[in-house]
């Protein structure tokens, strides 16, 4: 066997002995396994396992998942319209997308999906679950739902349709004060953001305070995060830096059009009112704010442009680059870490708010149940010194689980979490108090979360 291929950029010969071992295993499976195995499946599974073993965000894309990934960043796809995660081997609903078939069918956050059509979900990879729920428009899929707080299992048949995720919401809450919420950073986010800001200033040209709501925003496209940061920052200041092995991974992104504008259409921020650069601001974040959200919060915090309020963010401070392997397959590979303008790594730590605010008047009852980067298996370290394990984390989770069980016994009307952007949104009320110079109910229990030791 002659192997002249070298690793990209490093000019390191591939390890011949290990490659021969891989080839030997391939041969043994082909000849000795109980039944014939497809060559392509063996190779793609080997690639998938190799990439997935690196960290939770690196991933191999086959033809279908590559198409779905592209749809996800564009903000359009055909499916049922839910954001999902994994919990105890099952698929958990994080949130139904407003107006989607799943939303109309009554699916709720924390619902567990136990079966997709005839396929049991236990042990199914998250990507495989997504594949089974997506499909062609006007086709049906039956989800079997376990709703913990009602202790019941029931089927829901949903008709798939094209989902256009609306990543920007906003309104004038009261004269002089506006709220704008980003639920994701997609290709359309910046244009939608500009339109929403224009609407707000048309309705109230004398905005005295703005709340930028990034709670539960899982992130998305880097250029969209740079653009949203640039909307509020002085021109040419640093928004975020990246560092990795490749020369192209060592980059500085600034608040200037060349760092965020797409190939056509010029600067998408040119229509924004000038007042946006100086309006007093609060940015709301929580444990569900990740990646691109943390870039925006970190940039606005380091440049002292806004007061960051809420709870410490998720801590996904790594950059993923998509490399095509052919016309319709590819890999998403972690290639760098993000650093805020002052040089702090976001990875496995997140952004620490200037003012810690509980999620409700009763405190952060369920915050400990939310996953963070440091909770993920094989998570990447920050690269900035030893990470320390927070021993109180599991105890807090256990207490939160007990509170959740107690909460589930209450009537549905009493336990419904208030929708973001309403007058019952405790954190938003505190953000408005901050902007008005009124007293803020600061958390008595939230403290800065230290980096947690990476488990090998």
Automatic annotation (TrEMBL):
Keywords: Hydrolase, Protease, Serine protease. The keyword Protease applies. Its EC number is 3.4.21.102. It comes from the Bacteria. Residues 66-134 form the PDZ domain. One of its GO terms (biological process) is proteolysis. Residues 377-423 are annotated as: Disordered. One of its GO terms (molecular function) is serine-type endopeptidase activity. GO terms for cellular component: outer membrane-bounded periplasmic space. NCBIfam families: prc. Belongs to the peptidase S41A family. This is Carboxyl-terminal processing protease. It comes from Acidovorax soli.
